[in-house]
Write a structure and sequence with these properties.
By secondary structure, the protein is mainly α. Helices cover about 65% and strands about 10% of the residues.
């Protein structure tokens, strides 16, 4: 009897934890629009399939995503009934998905990867320079003057290259990595249009 009771309590606790973890991983971004133009930049006169996405729209979505850190996102856009156009919504949905995927690719391949690559090169060069300084310090072929001179020259250079490499690959890419995480989640989000009550 006790075993059955304990088992049911554990089972209930696990189901609550599972429910909480699922709830944590999902998030909705709810945005009310007066018209579809609210999604796009006011300065871009092109059609919806090509228009630039509004900075305010992106900032609002980013605020929700970065504060909750969900794994799965639904972007819920509420529009007045009189302003709704199903054909336009299909075009806008594709435009938003393309925007998020394009920015994810740009951040990953043209901003973060080059910085990380440069950081690795700097770190490797720093280690090689410090290794050379160590070899010179233990060399008996050079006079004491040249030994001291080269060590003084190479050691700071080695440390500089090493720490600069770490800075580039870790700290310099931090902001880009935050944006990369946002665009990665948004590129896989579900975009839903609904009619607002007002």
């Amino acid at each position: 009897m006790k075993r059955g009771l304990i088992g049911s309590i554990i089972g209930e606790a696990l189901s609550i934890l599972r429910f909480r973890s699922v709830k944590k991983k999902k998030s909705e971004i709810l945005i009310r629009l007066n018209s579809y133009d609210d999604i796009f930049s006011d300065f871009d006169p092109r059609p919806s399939s090509q228009r630039s996405i509004s900075g305010d729209f992106i900032a609002e979505a980013k605020k929700v995503v970065l504060s909750n850190e969900p794994e799965r996102i639904t972007l819920h856009l509420f529009t007045p009934k009189r302003a709704r156009n199903l054909r336009e919504e299909i075009i806008i949905r594709k435009r938003l998905q393309n925007h998020f995927k394009t920015h994810y690719y740009i951040l990953k391949n043209t901003e973060i990867k080059p910085l990380v690559r440069q950081g690795i090169i700097f770190c490797s060069a720093g280690i090689l320079v410090m290794l050379l300084a160590t070899i010179i310090a233990h060399s008996s072929e050079l006079s004491e003057f040249w030994q001291q001179f080269l060590i003084i020259l190479l050691e700071p250079a080695g440390w500089f290259l090493f720490w600069e490499g770490l800075y580039l690959s870790i700290l310099e890419t931090r902001k880009s990595r935050i944006n990369l995480g946002f665009y990665k989640k948004m590129s896989n989000c579900d975009i839903v249009f609904s009619t607002s009550k007002k």
